[in-house]
Amino acid sequence: MNIPFPSQVTQNEALFDWVAGKVALCQPDSVHWCDGSDAEYQMLAQRMVESGTIEPLNPELRPNSFLAHSDPRDVARVEEQTFICSKRPVDAGPTNNWRDPKTTKSHLLGLFDGCMKGRTMYVVPFCLGPLDSRIARIGVEVTDSPYVALSMRLTTRCGHDVLRPLGQSENFVRCVHSLGLPLEEGQADVSWPCNPEERIIAHFPDTRQIWSFGSGYGGNALLAKKCFALRVASVMARDEGWMAEHMLILGITNPQGKKKYFAAAFPSACGKTNLAMMTPNLPGWKVECVGDDIAWLRVKADGRLYAVNPEFGFFGVAPGTSSQTNPAAIGTLKRDVVFTNVARTPEGDVWWEGLTDKKPPHLTDWRGQDWTPEGGTPAAHPNARFTARASQCPVIDPAYDDPRGVPISAILFGGRRPSTIPLVYQARSWAHGTFIGSTIASETTAAASGQVGQIRRDPMAMLPFCGYHMGDYFAHWLDIPESTTPDKMPRLFGVNWFRRAADGSFLWPGFGDNARVLKWIFERTDGQADALETPIGWVPTELDLSKLNVSDEDMDQLMTVDTEEWRREAASIREFYTRFGEHLPAELRAELDELDRRLAAS
Ligand code: GTP
Ligand code: SPV
Ligand code: MN
User: Phi/psi of residue 100, each to 5°?
Assistant: First the structure.
């Protein structure tokens, strides 16, 4: 087998040896070493058009863009088949699926033996974070999916550029991915190869390896994303004193031209992309996007917490995205986009639920079938996604690729809560904010397989993404301010855009109107804007509601902190906390006791 090592760009023996080992194991027909060029992008797209994985969209409506239809069994992250293979079960903790590293590795070696027969192996070196940033980390993914190779090209810094900063280092995260469907001589391929029966996504945090088999979709297969930038990176961050978080990063400028940066942790499909690039419904305010899904943060010498976006592009939820709700996303999607599991119009463009008020009369749905509104089925899968470079976003922040990162003034925690949680409240301290983050809960969404709409606790929106014991992760959060002074750390807030009226409708208009909440947070971080102390933290005495069409009664309900509801909430948190046993930091138990005390007194 001829492996096209790019020896003109690097002489890294460890890299060559590792790739050669994976070629010997997986036995692909050929190997393509990804250089990251535009010609390569076109080549990958062409191959997938030929194999039926993607189809080109009408170049006049959507230049250089494609639509992929996945296998209906491979449409979302699979948490049940995702494992943390740390030495001991206690290292993975009660919220992860643990598997023994030795037996799992031998199981994987069996699965991967010959798994790429009849296919090409793509070697994708990538860098998470700005190339010359101190916090940046390098990984290499080998995959037999051209869809993955092309998606990595849109969402990470990848190709030859990464080999220079890697140099001779052996320090790269090893990512092995296969669709798990080798082709025998003469066997015809399918348009979306996958192997749901044998699917497994296994992380080895101790040796910094990720092995993924059987899925070609999203976070299961783009190993730079949730697998590396969160699960493995959270372990690195714990060891090295920084943070890897499921957070958007945005820049916000007030009418006087003062700019701050906020980060926000919301669970999957709970509004990060939308908040990260929102168009404020408040004159004179501006929001710019640094990142929409993942943030790596660390306290720098000046004592402030800085964030970089390890990614370089978006893998965003399509349904619900429109020029009303998220005009900047619509602007991002004008060209050079890969759509997955959206519907196709007769003109060769895309459509999904919420894109337009009126449903088109006739479409091809995400399964490739004829669709009319009368059929009553969704035209796009609820977890249909777009993949595009961040640089295409009309409101991308000038600092989005700055190796120094951006200083964070506020961190928001949120989720889909039909009741109990007010629109916004502020933590009294970093420890209290860590308590709030550790207790966020949300209705489950279509981003992961399983039931949708069930409320579950999702601490810091990291439940599916923390690579070690969640109780130790809480302790790590509490330790972060140690090297600085509290006034330099970001202020912490809880938010909830999803509180519902008795008839089930959302009480809050959300989207651009969330700027009204951001304004209050902005001013609170300046020590301005009035607030009222409640048992759960500080709530606004007043929000800027100019030209907003929400009734006074609805506003009251949105801001209500109901003592009875909160007593139930506190009891449910206490029950949740028992899962962490001795790993639960005493500070968090003290915060819960304090909440109980305040509720009893109110
Ligand atoms: P992941 O990429 O899965 O991590 O999701 P995300 O957190 O980036 O969520 P995203 O912004 O893509 O939003 C998910 C869904 O929630 C979309 O259908 C949005 O239209 C909807 N949504 C986002 N923000 C709001 C809001 O403020 N109010 C309401 N009602 N819906 C929202
Ligand atoms: C999420 O589920 O939080 C996502 C999509 O951002 S995936 O990349 O599939 O994890
Ligand atoms: Mn996400």
Answer: -65, 130
